[in-house]
Amino acid sequence: MSPTSALIVIGNEILSGRTQDANIRFLALGLGEIGAPLKEVRIIPDIRETIIGTINEMKARYDQVFTTGGIGPTHDDITASCVAEAFGVPLELHEESAALLKTHYGTDQFTSARQRMAMMPRGAMPITNAVSIAPGFSIGNVHVMAGVPSIMQAMFQSVRPNLKQGTPVTSRTWHALGLYESAIAAALEAVQDRYPDLDLGSYPFRREDGRRGVALVAKGTNVEHLDGAAAQIRSLIAATGETPVEGEPKP
Amino acid sequence: MSPTSALIVIGNEILSGRTQDANIRFLALGLGEIGAPLKEVRIIPDIRETIIGTINEMKARYDQVFTTGGIGPTHDDITASCVAEAFGVPLELHEESAALLKTHYGTDQFTSARQRMAMMPRGAMPITNAVSIAPGFSIGNVHVMAGVPSIMQAMFQSVRPNLKQGTPVTSRTWHALGLYESAIAAALEAVQDRYPDLDLGSYPFRREDGRRGVALVAKGTNVEHLDGAAAQIRSLIAATGETPVEGEPKP
Q1: What is A5-162's CATH number?
Q2: How far apart are CA A223 and CA A165, in angstroms?
Q3: CA closest to B40 among chain A residues
Q4: Which pick of A167, B4, B134, B138 has the fewest CB atoms within 10 Å?
Q5: Can you say whether the dihedral through the CA atoms of B217, B220, B224, B228 is positive or negative?
Q6: Is the pLDDT of residue B123 over 90?
């Protein structure tokens, strides 16, 4: 069995619509590559009880949990404190991270707001990264990362060697212009029944030039099954009279 | 109190990273406008027990719940059946919707796959829309919509008059180039303490020209409080020596 992953997006700015999320897809692809696929995402507000409750629920249910957001220097950055409470440990200054921040900003400019960024639950390991001096951290099976996409991405690359990994998820895609889902629904279900370990999906698309069609995607970890399913998907498209084309449609 | 909303995104294609979500932000903004703000989003896979359990949990916790995805004609489109089970009612053919689909496709082409798109839980009301013949539906406090963004948006406009509404959430934003969060953290917290009913956030940004800064956003339903907080936010930026500019930064 592949290890399972879940993501908690902590941020009023996503729930209010101010910000378009740019982290979910990056993590979904990265976790698929290391064979620890994303099984659930929750987007929750900056409310203590909600954050603590969600972390407790998710860390028990999934092999590893990621959080994004809420680790900056302002009053609404309460993620570290909530993770500490979820693990039942005190929040304290991480001396090594504090020293790095102090060197970076200078002693005069290492204000109490900036000290917040070196506060971690006792026992946490910092997630250093190339983009930001302020670190994320890992504790138990929970990995706490920044919400700013460039920093989050650097933190994920940094923590990646420490993650639980499995067999990479790969996919085979065929698409056809002019195809309708209803024309292939029964045949596609038969392929799904033959390969229950794969995840088969059909996705209607509309290209920028206005032409419509459907993409059929098989995902999984067993390459032999993927190749078998892909051949059948190609055939079932051809049986409708439309032309199967390998890969995703153009935009 | 404003009514609360939650969104369940049903779709393996978001969790696998195949598809960039384009629905969350649209609904977040739309629900803010009608004063029924989005309080939680869950992205879950196409697994029966997960969908049923999540619907049951969310419809008890929030005033209204939206789902997107899983209402097409293929084997992985199981949302309607799961909603029926969550409400403890049978899934059955909605005669009026079936008649519309039959007229549209013609009797010969109204295949069993297409009939799936007229299946609804008993007692559901269809959400007709201008883009797609296949409807969504509402039952109890749950509104079931398509995953394809153009269809979802049309369905939301169609169901909007039937939704629970409250005082619209509005916002005031000031930003400044060269500003650091740590420089305003304490002053911003003081504004938050003075207006506990508002949601105050600080968001670092980096423009396309490489210049960095911070945007400060006050959100809420009380316009007098918003105006008061906005004036104080303007002042606290000016006190750092940077120039406060009203509104969001340019890209």
Answers
A1: 3.40.980.10
A2: 17
A3: A44
A4: A167
A5: negative
A6: yes
Domain boundaries, chain A: 5-162, 170-246
Residues in chain B closer than 8 A to A26 (CB atoms): 17
In CATH, what number does B170-246 get? 3.30.70.260
DSSP state, residue A248:
P
> Quick one: which of A127, A234, A13, A201 has its CA closest to B17?
A201
In this structure, the number of other CB atoms found within 10 A of the CB of residue A71 comes to 28
For the segment B130-177, what is each residue's pLDDT rounded down to a tens digit? Answer: 888 889 999 999 999 999 999 999 999 999 999 999 999 999 999 999
Spatial strand order of the sheet with B170-177 comes to B199-206, B212-220, B170-177, B245-246
Output the pLDDT for position A133.
Answer: 86
Fold match, B5-162 / B170-246: no
Chain B contact set for A21 (CB, 8 A)? 21, 24-25
Query: Residues B174-215: pLDDT tens digits?
Result: 999 999 998 999 999 999 999 999 999 999 998 999 899 999
The predicted structure's pLDDT at residue A184? 93
Q: Which of residues 115-154 of B touch A (CB under 8 A)?
A: 116, 148, 150
- Rounded distance, CA B119 to CA B95, Å? 9
Residues of chain A under the 50 pLDDT cut = none
Closest C-alpha to A249, from A199, A212, A219, A218: A212
% of chain B with per-residue pLDDT over 70: 100
